[in-house]
């Protein structure tokens, strides 16, 4: 997988996006998606989100971790509360039906993240793209590389094998007209090990029309810049931002016009 830079003059739009993962009403981070390796960062997600907004953030990535594993999104009230923050919210966890997508959009979501269903039932999710519009749905193809080098796609909060590969589903969703793709290298998630730039460059070269969101491993501003230069449209900022390794205003300064 090449790590050759994109050609000079790349003008892709770019947005740093703070992330809040919730479990039991608390803001947490998991290491490599392991529910047994959890760090708690606070019990007032709305206050943290407002702090990000006040520092210049325009988007928030909001995840219901329990729903991601078990189904049944529970953060509708918080989503409505965040409507007054000025943030546009991309959110998911446990989205299993068209009615789930509709409820989240009605509650104020700007984009709904679909993960497990995108792997298990790609034709169904392709229908949601047609029904709700390309701008309303973000497909999450979160991947773990196997010993054979193939990128496989776990589901149910990354706890079970989804039986699909990144390459195959990427092509499917390109043909279905997908606009927004979130991809996490699971082994780097919550580990502050740096983003997998080779993975994102591979995706961008294979599907140049996609708005790719880099997720997993970002630890400093240099990593945000590197994700942008790799051709990503966004970088999801989790643990490093919560731990103050850089500030939300510093991240917002790396935004490029959309």
Automatic annotation (TrEMBL):
Subcellular location: Cytoplasm
Gene3D superfamilies found in the cross-reference section: Aldolase class I
Entry keyword Cytoplasm: yes
Residues annotated as catalytic: 21, 142
Transmembrane segments: none
Primary enzyme class: isomerase
Reaction catalysis annotation: 1-(5-phospho-beta-D-ribosyl)-5-[(5-phospho-beta-D-ribosylamino)methylideneamino]imidazole-4-carboxamide = 5-[(5-phospho-1-deoxy-D-ribulos-1-ylimino)methylamino]-1-(5-phospho-beta-D-ribosyl)imidazole-4-carboxamide
One Pfam assignment: His_biosynth
Gene Ontology annotations for the cellular component aspect, listed alphabetically: cytoplasm
EC number from the UniProt entry: 5.3.1.16
Example GO molecular function: 1-(5-phosphoribosyl)-5-[(5-phosphoribosylamino)methylideneamino]imidazole-4-carboxamide isomerase activity
Biological processes, Gene Ontology terms: L-histidine biosynthetic process; L-tryptophan biosynthetic process
Pathway, per record: Amino-acid biosynthesis; L-histidine biosynthesis; L-histidine from 5-phospho-alpha-D-ribose 1-diphosphate: step 4/9
Keywords: Amino-acid biosynthesis, Cytoplasm, Histidine biosynthesis, Isomerase
PANTHER family: 1-(5-PHOSPHORIBOSYL)-5-[(5-PHOSPHORIBOSYLAMINO)METHYLIDENEAMINO] IMIDAZOLE-4-CARBOXAMIDE ISOMERASE
Family in the record: Belongs to the HisA/HisF family.
Name of the featured protein: 1-(5-phosphoribosyl)-5-[(5-phosphoribosylamino)methylideneamino] imidazole-4-carboxamide isomerase
Native source species: Lysobacter defluvii IMMIB APB-9 = DSM 18482
């Amino acid at each position: 997988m090449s790590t050759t830079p994109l050609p000079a003059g790349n003008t892709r739009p770019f947005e740093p996006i703070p992330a809040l993962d919730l479990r039991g009403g608390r803001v947490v981070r998991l290491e490599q998606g392991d529910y047994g390796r959890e760090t708690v960062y606070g019990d007032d997600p709305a206050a943290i989100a407002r702090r990000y907004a006040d520092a210049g953030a325009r988007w928030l990535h909001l995840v219901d971790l329990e729903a991601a594993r078990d189904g049944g999104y529970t953060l509708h009230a918080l989503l409505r509360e965040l409507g007054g923050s000025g943030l546009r919210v991309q959110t998911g966890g446990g989205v299993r039906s068209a009615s789930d997508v509709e409820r989240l959009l009605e509650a104020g979501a700007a984009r709904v993240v679909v993960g497990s269903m995108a792997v298990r039932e790609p034709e169904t999710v392709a229908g949601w793209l047609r029904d709700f519009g390309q701008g309303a749905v973000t497909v999450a193809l979160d991947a773990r590389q196997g010993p054979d080098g193939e990128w496989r796609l776990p589901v149910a909060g990354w706890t079970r094998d989804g039986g699909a590969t990144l390459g195959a589903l990427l092509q499917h969703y390109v043909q279905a007209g997908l606009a927004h793709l979130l991809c996490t290298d699971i082994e780097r998630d919550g580990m502050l090990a740096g983003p997998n730039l080779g993975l994102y460059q591979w995706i961008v070269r294979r599907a140049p029309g996609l708005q790719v969101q880099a997720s997993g491993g970002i630890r400093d501003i240099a990593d945000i810049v590197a994700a942008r230069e790799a051709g990503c449209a966004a970088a999801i900022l989790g643990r490093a931002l919560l731990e103050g390794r850089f500030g939300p205003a510093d991240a917002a300064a790396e935004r490029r016009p959309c």
